[in-house]
Design goal:
By secondary structure, the protein is α+β, with helices and mostly antiparallel strands. It is built from 21 helices and 22 strands. Strand 18, helix 16 and strand 19 form a beta-alpha-beta unit. A 7-stranded mixed β-sheet has the order 10-22-21-20-11-18-19, sandwiched between helices. A 6-stranded antiparallel β-sheet has the order 2-1-3-9-4-7, with no helix packed on it.
Length: 649
């Protein structure tokens, strides 16, 4: 996927998503109240006119005066709609809601139904205001990302720190971040440690403490002390830029439901228009007491009802709300289509390392034979001190006491371990093969240990062993239980780690099906085999780097901890911005809630429209019922979609 530079200063809504409603509706902070003034003026004038009509308070309120009064009440809300209808007509798009509402309300004026003509347009305008407010609210979680866009960077140049635009900072330069400031660019921490608030990026409010040489990401807030960072990515390639780009593109990727409704509306609307024309003139040939005005009135009702606002507005709004809710929870969907796809998942395949385990080796247990544990570990640490192997790093994290032992004459025995001298004693550190080749007897209990094990011999006598293992993530066990509860029938673990360790982790997590010792292509073959059964809808969770082929092949690819991974951004369909597998369960729940609300809106809109269309054709519904069938249902659908912003999962 080719990257494009994101303009972080402006997160514009997708024009199609707004259904052309933004024209003439500026909702900037400075003019928020102004947008309501036309509707307020029309409402007041309409109420006064209806009151005068009903109570006959002003005898002179008739004829031309009455027409002028209601026309003046109509103009503030009607003119913008007529203007948009004309623009669409010039472009060749005839059957828009603007055109339909214009014809219906002007027709109401022609037959003398002035209050109803004003009321239809007024309620339509109010519906527009509610819709825009709902869209703005739905975008709130996404727009909040703009608040974390750093505006300046303190870069070290010419012997001093200078405040510059982040876009001018180059890779390799050193920047300083004071307490409370946002990190402007991705980089490596040069200070000893830092406490960072990454809530805007990960959805987690708990500060994250990181150590020297760890990665830091743009948009994080420095919480404790002044820190220094070496820049590793340019401004346009930073984590916050990629997230904004991803979210912007997500609104453009429509679900099948959205696409179907839009196509349906383009067919359904002209059909109803021609039915309305037929409803006006055809009864002349079949009805004895045909009255043109009555049948025109019914046709106008038909036109008002035919407006597809409730469908075309509320459905994208529902998906947009789902995308926003997911973003708020640290979950990025690449489009509404993946919200839909996630609801159908019944088979979940997951990687082990970095997905359900932390991917970091830790000392699990220490067993010594006739040695004090601390002294034993000092001998072992002296040997491992110069090694960069992950197991050596885990051993060096042993913190008890102070290690003053030094190793010399250290040599590596290929494929077996290390040999050297510590305090005048020969020390062997490695696997069983190293011990056997030096005629050292190893206890049988080591045979049953499936995790990585480091054996130690001192002066040709077995001294003990250390078990090193990858830790399970805190929420790993609960994640598996929760996945079963939400209806994921089959869970499978695939790992490149050796099979014995994979099976042990699977047993701890109560995963029945697990395979270890797999290459990336082996994982791909396993997923492809599952997909051969059309009943299986497969999601794969991986780290987004070595699992790229499987992420691409699955029905839904989910990248864990993909915040800093280019491969995750490019390959996965869903990105979990933290390393918490439990967020996958939340992603499933958000998807299902979104789809449920979308279908509620579809059923509501269709159901009410069909009923009122039938009543209107039979002369049993007035323009007021038509207003409810269109604007009222649209409002109800919008309010229903907004519920996504208040839900918790």
């Amino acid at each position: 996927m080719k990257k494009k530079k994101v303009n972080l200063r402006d997160l514009k809504p997708n024009s199609e998503e707004q259904h052309s409603h933004d024209d003439g509706h500026d909702h900037g902070d400075g003019s928020a109240f102004k947008t309501y003034i036309p509707a307020i003026i029309s409402f007041v004038m309409l109420m006064v006119g209806i009151a005068v009509d009903y109570f006959d308070a002003i005898p002179q309120f008739e004829g031309l005066i009455r027409v002028v009064w209601y026309t003046l009440a109509y103009i503030p809300v009607g003119f913008p709609v007529i203007k948009e209808g004309w623009k669409s007509l010039i472009k060749g798009d005839v059957f828009t809601e603007f055109f339909l509402m214009s014809i219906a309300t002007i027709g109401a004026f022609i037959i003398g139904e002035y209050p109803e003509g004003v009321a239809v347009m007024l309620f339509y305008a109010v519906g527009e205001l509610f819709q825009n407010a709902a869209v703005n609210r739905a975008k709130g979680n996404i727009k909040a990302l703009l608040d974390v866009r750093p505006k300046e960077a303190n870069v070290f140049r010419d012997g001093d720190y200078k405040s510059v635009n982040p876009e001018s900072v180059e890779i390799g330069e050193k920047i300083q971040i004071r307490v409370g400031e946002k990190i402007p660019l991705d980089g490596i921490l040069l200070s000893e440690k830092a406490s960072l608030n990454t809530a805007a990026l990960t959805g987690e409010s708990k500060p994250d403490t990181i150590n020297k040489k760890s990665k830091v990401y743009a948009g994080s807030i420095n919480m404790e002390s002044v820190i220094e960072v070496e820049v590793t990515n340019k401004f346009e390639d930073s984590s916050i830029a990629r997230i904004l780009d991803l979210v912007q593109n997500a609104t453009a990727r429509k679900s099948k439901t959205e696409l179907f409704i839009r196509k349906f509306a383009r067919i359904y609307t002209p059909i109803v228009v021609f039915l309305a024309i037929g409803l006006t003139f055809l009864p002349y040939f079949f009805v004895d007491d045909y009255v043109f005005r009555d049948w025109l009135y019914r046709a106008l009702i038909f036109l008002v009802i035919s407006c597809p606002c409730a469908l075309v507005i509320s459905i994208p709004l529902g998906y947009f709300g789902g995308l926003g809710a997911a973003s708020k929870n640290g979950i990025l969907f690449k489009g509404a289509s993946f919200l839909d796809a996630m609801t159908k998942i019944n088979t979940l395949v997951m990687d082990k390392t970095g997905t359900v385990t932390k991917g970091v080796f830790k000392i699990k247990s220490i067993k010594t034979f006739d040695w004090d544990e601390e002294e034993f570990m000092n001998y072992l640490m002296a040997m491992e001190e110069q090694s960069t192997h992950p197991i050596a790093k885990a051993i060096m994290e042993y913190q008890k006491g102070t290690n003053n032992f030094e190793a010399n004459k250290v040599s590596e025995v290929a494929g077996k371990g290390l040999k050297g001298m510590v305090k005048g004693k020969e020390v062997l550190v490695g696997n069983k093969a190293l011990m056997v080749s030096n005629n050292i007897e190893v206890p049988n209990e080591t045979e049953s240990i499936v995790e990585s094990i480091v054996l130690v011999a001192i002066d040709n006598v077995f001294a003990g062993y250390v078990v090193i293992a990858d830790e399970l993530k805190e929420d790993a066990k609960e994640t598996i239980s929760s996945l079963h509860r939400v209806g994921i029938k089959k869970i499978m673990m695939l790992s490149g780690d050796k099979d014995s360790i994979t099976q042990q982790v699977a047993k701890d997590l109560k995963i029945e099906n697990a395979k270890g010792g797999l290459l990336p292509e082996d994982k791909l073959n396993e997923v492809e085999a599952l997909k051969k059964n059309p009943q299986n809808k497969v999601a794969f969770i991986g780290d987004g780097i070595n699992d790229a082929p499987v992420l691409a092949a699955s029905n839904v690819g989910i990248a864990m901890g993909g915040l800093g991974s280019d491969v995750a951004i490019e390959t996965a369909d869903v990105i979990i911005q933290t390393d918490q597998p439990s967020k996958v369960v939340r992603a499933i729940k958000i998807s299902r809630s979104t789809r449920k609300i979308v279908w509620q809106n579809i059923i509501l809109a269709f159901g009410v429209k069909v009923i009122v269309l039938i009543l209107g054709a039979g002369g049993l519904a007035t323009m007021w019922e038509a207003v409810f069938a269109d604007v009222g249902v649209a409002l109800l659908a919008i309010l229903n979609a907004v519920r996504l912003q208040r839900m918790s999962w």
